[in-house]
Design brief:
elongated, 70 residues, mainly alpha
Length: 70
């Protein structure tokens, strides 16, 4: 797995989890959904994503292993 794929998986999981929590627990969880969406939106313009930086420091590769060999 590589960073971009993990970021997408985590963002999607956060959105689904927060929607489920809003449905079954309390609708204020929708603020978390909005936060994740806004973070994805701003990272598309600024290329800044906190999770990307954390995963990079943990040594997760940026690209698939065979991406440079094709």
């Amino acid at each position: 797995m590589y960073i971009e794929r993990i970021v997408r998986i985590v963002a999607g999981a956060f959105i689904v989890i927060s929607l489920l929590l809003a449905h079954f627990h309390h609708q204020n969880w929708l603020w978390f959904t909005g936060f994740v969406g806004l973070n994805l939106f701003q990272s598309g313009f600024t290329q800044f994503c906190p999770l990307f930086n954390i995963l990079e420091k943990m040594g997760v590769p940026k690209f698939p292993k065979d991406a440079c060999c094709k």
